Amino acid sequence: MFCNKWSVSAAAAAMAVMTAACGGREKAAHSSKAGEAGAVQVQLAKAVEERIAEEYEATGTVRARTTSVLSARVMGYIREIRAQAGDSVKAGQVVAVLEAKEVESAVRQAEAARAEARSAVPEVNNAIAAAKAQLELANSTHKRMQPLFDQKSITPQEMDEATARQRMAQANFEMARARRSQLDQKIRQADESVAQAEVTKGYTQVTAPFAGMVIERKAEPGMLASPGMPIVVVEQAGSYRLEAAVEESRLASIRPGMAVRVDVEALGKSVDARVEEIVPALDAGSRTFVVKIGLAGGTLRSGMFGRARFAAGHSQALTVPQAALVEMGQVRKVFVVQGGIARGRLVTTGAANEGRMAILSGLSAGEMVVAPVPAGLLDGGKVEVRQ
After folding, report:
1. Which of 324, 323, 271, 244 is nearest to 56 (CA)?
2. Alpha carbons 124 and 241: distance in angstroms, whole number
3. I need a labelling partner for 237 at 20 to 30 A (CA). Which of 37, 54, 226, 300 fits?
């Protein structure tokens, strides 16, 4: 009886051990499959030595090619300013209006003087007509009396009186014509005075000299503006340059017309450009000179930061695809695969060229790096290489 009980207990224990063993194998198999399923699939690229184009980088600031400070040309209180910073303006558009009563008064006075001069024209014309009639009568009388005098039918005194009347009529006619000339001159002067007054009146409206954008407002309505006082600053639209500071040692290698690659960080893109001007004067403190590089594009704005990349020959360098790089602030790294495990490695980079990045340190030729780097890949993570 005792032996039967022990046999049953032993059998039960053996069954428990076998069940536990089977369960352990199942868990281990499941764990192994889960580990394989957690591997990140990656592609590899080789770090290779190749000949790349070297670049010299210079930083600078985007500035408008043409900037105009619009200022008052006459004295007067600012009545209104019709443009704010950031507003687009057209050529000839009124951006500010001054209130100058003295100018308006000068216009009225000039117009009154011109009207007065013109009103005297009929009177002078009538005087000319009367003098001309008197002259014609005196000429006729003198002509009729000349034969009579030759025939001794009239006395010398009568002939002298006729001649005197003729000369007086001629003088009166010439005097009337002279008055008309003086009046015409006075009218011309009055016209010029009115035109000048109108021009001065036009100065009470400050207009944009070209199409562009208002970048700064320097005055407010109600302020007393004097000649030369800045009111707004306008920069010409669509015409910008990058003014880059270049080291003195690079002066001989940069010339006008040279092709340059410019990166404008605010736009997040690069543009092809050319050197337009080189300022020959060097800054004594920084030992740099300014290179002005022409840019095109309506999205540019003054003050943007830019980088100019000048071609500087070729050299041998270790390169990897740019897609292999991971940026962490100011630090860059790549992932190399060792025994199915991704290992992050910090690298020092050089210039980029046609989709590849030069590696200055941290990597050796022939090593395989992950490219592109998939999302979620961690240092020490399992990877599976795709062929």
Report:
1. 244
2. 65
3. 226
Domain ranges of the chain: 41-51+316-385, 58-65+238-314, 69-98+207-237, 101-203
Distance CA 194, CA 268 (A): 56
Cα gap 378→39, rounded to integer Å: 11
Alpha carbons 366 and 359: distance in angstroms, whole number: 13
> Which residues, including other chains, have CB under 8 Å from residue 21's CB and lie 6 or more apart?
none
Read off the DSSP letter of residue 382. Answer: B
Q: What is the pLDDT of residue 21?
A: 42
CA distance 15 to 23: 12
The dihedral built from the CA positions of residue 322, 45, 339 and 26, taken in this order, carries a sign that is positive
Please enumerate in sequence order all residues whose Cβ is within 8 A of that of 311, keeping only pairs 6 or more positions apart, or say none.
Answer: 53, 54, 55, 259
Condensed to tens digits (0 to 9), the pLDDT of residues 269-291 reads 888 899 999 998 888 888 899 99
CATH code of 41-51+316-385, in short, is: 2.40.420.20
Q: Residue 44 and residue 127: Cα distance in Å, rounded?
A: 109
Residues pairing with 307 in the sheet = 59, 263
Q: Are 320 and 47 in contact (CB under 8 A)?
A: yes
DSSP 3-state assignment of 266? coil
* DSSP H or E stretch at residue 318: strand 305-321
CA-only gyration radius of the chain, Å: 49
pLDDT at 106: 87
Name the one residue in this structure whose structure tokens are 């394989």. 36
CB 99 within 8 A of CB 248: no
3-state secondary structure 204-253: CEEECCCCEEEEEECCCCCCEECCCCEEEEEEECCCEEEEEEEEHHHHHH
In the predicted structure, residue 19 carries a pLDDT above the cut 60:
no
